[in-house]
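This entry is listed below:
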Amino acid sequence: MSESEPNAPATPELISSRSPRVLAARRLAKRNFRGKERLFLAEGPQAVREAAVHRGTGGHGGAATLVELFVTPEAAERYTDIIGAARDAGARIHLAAEQVVADISTTVTPQGLVGVCRFLDTPFEEILAARPRLVAVLAHVRDPGNAGTVLRCADAAGAEAVVLTDASVDLYNPKAVRASVGSLFHLPVAVGVPVEHAVAALRDTGVRVLAADGAGDHDLDDELDRDTMGGPTAWVFGNEAWGLPEETRALTDAVVRVPIHGKAESLNLATAAAVCLYASARAQRAVGGCRSVTES
């Protein structure tokens, strides 16, 4: 589909999975190729729609994030708004056979749309300069699905930034991108930051840094009752299986546990993150701090 054509042709232009463009896109499923090209894959209508309207910052100077789109004829007819947004963004649009798009996709049931996007992470220094009031720090988080889900929770709670430490999973892992359900394109994300530097720098800007851990000495309910949650806050979330190392917990201002009132042994990482982030967001709104996601 050339950018000058007003309507999608009836038959796909790309019918071979060995096309150079297809092979180049398929390589982005591997981290080393993503890092080399500074490109990643976004799959499905929600992610591609968000990518199409997103503009880069910093070194990208406002350039469109979506640079290329592979779409089946059926998806092109169903998602004309996304095709239009991709065209407006200047993306190269390829009408491709269903099998070609499936070969690029990393999902079991492809939805007919795969975008190639520029890296969009934000330098940590820019996040600090913006003086955020609510931040999620992912330290030692290795599961890409959990990373993407926490990012989505942070977005929903109104956090201003997410930080992935150098010990965490790749932000652009296809599973992480899918799990974020488009939230990756909504808020600044810094990557590769040593946890010691992240905690120290946030504290230097006046942010209270809390570690979320089931064995914490402080109870989240007690913190809320004592009105200690209304100021700028960063939550540090650890590994899915073994939580946060003692040396990381020691860096923070307090180690806080989510109370278990029933008989469940524990909460998984994403659920605990949602509870913590929403607790901070509610407390901050009560003192006129953090914006509400329901506000226009």
User: Anything to note?
Assistant: The first strand starts at residue 39 and ends at 43. Residues 158 and 283 are 12 Å apart (CA to CA).
